Amino acid sequence: MGAELGRDVGAWLYPTTLSAGGRVAFRAVYGIVGGLAGEVCVSWGAVDALRYGGNPADLFIFKVGDNGRALAVKTPVLKKILRRGD
Length: 86
Description:
This protein is mostly beta strands. The chain has strands at 9-20, 23-32, 51-52, 55-56, 59-64, 70-75, 80-83. The chain is globular.
């Protein structure tokens, strides 16, 4: 999956079936903005392909409140937790 010159690359987060204790995991899929997926979406073949320090670069774990609102997101590859700042 390569980017074309002059085209924007985007990321889309998709929920996984992993959830526990107010946390929900999402995986990122990257591609060309406005591009067609075609019959076979090859970007799904790249899930978990890029790793650093044993952590996948496309994993995002959201902590959600009782109302379903996101309170924070953990990015294991960066070893950071980003908290909502309202």
